[in-house]
């Protein structure tokens, strides 16, 4: 086992040379972010599993065909493929994604680092995150997508614009409206977001 952690570019090159474990490492490195993104948009675990598999099948085909151009942004490229497959799915099925409010599937808070504080603090913090996650569900799809990518995946607005095929100003506008709508909902629903 290599003691040195390989970059995405090195893993792709190694995979092209026939080292299938390199691709496995790529999948393991990025599967959580890609799957969470897909699930956030489709709100159906089985469909998300299918689209996740389709995403990585397309990645394999693209890499093997020599069409992948390394620009140091493998994850953004993978997310763009996932995004396009989601759009294709909904175009083919001619339906709009619905929101299942009772679903625990959207574990948006899983990636947040919790402080190791008192149980009371942890309970309150968990409740705040759960309340925010529920409020995010009420946002229009475009606003929810930008907010998720920016806040939870820490993707830049330029990369979000590229992934979603909109201008940077549109991505920024969607984020602005998402935050405005979140503030309105916090007031309307009397949700406390501070400890």
Describe the structure.
The chain is mainly alpha-helical and 195 residues long. The chain has two domains: 99 residues, Orthogonal Bundle (Rna Polymerase Sigma Factor, Chain: A); 89 residues, Arc Repressor Mutant, subunit A (Orthogonal Bundle), CATH 1.10.10. Helix content is 68%, strand content 0%. The chain contains eight helices and no strands. Helix 2 packs across helix 3, helix 3 crosses helix 4 and helix 4 packs parallel to helix 7. The longest helix is centred in the first third of the chain and has 23 residues.
Concise overview:
By secondary structure, the protein is mainly alpha-helical. It has helices spanning 8-16, 20-42, 45-65, 74-93, 119-137, 141-152, 157-164, 168-188.
Strand content: under 5%
Cα separation of the termini: 45 Å
Main beta sheet strand tally, sense and closure: none
Poorly predicted runs of 5 or more residues: 96-118
Q: SSE order in H/E notation?
A: HHHHHHHH
What is the CATH top level name of the largest domain? Mainly Alpha
Structural class by helix and strand composition: mainly alpha
CATH architecture of the largest domain, by name, is: Orthogonal Bundle
CATH topology of the largest domain: Rna Polymerase Sigma Factor, Chain: A
Q: How confident overall, as mean pLDDT?
A: 78
Number of helices: 8
Shape: elongated
Tell me the number of strands: 0
* Overall tally of domains: 2
Rg over alpha carbons: 18 Å
Q: What is the H level of CATH, i.e. the homologous superfamily of the largest domain?
A: RNA polymerase sigma factor, region 2, helix turn helix motif
**Oligomeric composition of the shown chains:** single chain
* Helix coverage percent: 55-70%
């Amino acid at each position: 086992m290599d003691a040195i952690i390989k970059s995405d570019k090195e893993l792709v090159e190694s995979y092209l040379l026939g080292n299938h474990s390199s691709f496995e490492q790529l999948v393991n490195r990025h599967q959580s972010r890609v799957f969470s993104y897909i699930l956030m948009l489709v709100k159906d675990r089985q469909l998300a599993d299918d689209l996740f598999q389709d995403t990585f099948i397309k990645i394999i085909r693209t890499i093997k065909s020599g069409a992948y151009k390394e620009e140091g942004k493998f994850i953004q490229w993978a997310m763009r493929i996932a995004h396009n497959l989601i759009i294709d799915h909904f175009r083919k099925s001619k339906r709009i994604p619905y929101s299942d409010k009772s679903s625990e599937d959207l574990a948006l808070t899983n990636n947040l680092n919790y402080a190791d504080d008192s149980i009371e603090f942890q309970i309150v913090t968990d409740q705040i995150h759960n309340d925010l996650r529920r409020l995010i569900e009420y946002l229009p799809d475009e606003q929810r997508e930008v907010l998720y990518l920016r806040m939870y995946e820490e993707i830049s607005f330029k990369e979000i614009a590229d992934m979603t095929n909109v201008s940077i100003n549109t991505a920024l506008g969607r984020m602005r409206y998402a935050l405005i709508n979140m503030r309105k909902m916090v007031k309307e629903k009397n949700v406390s977001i501070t400890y």
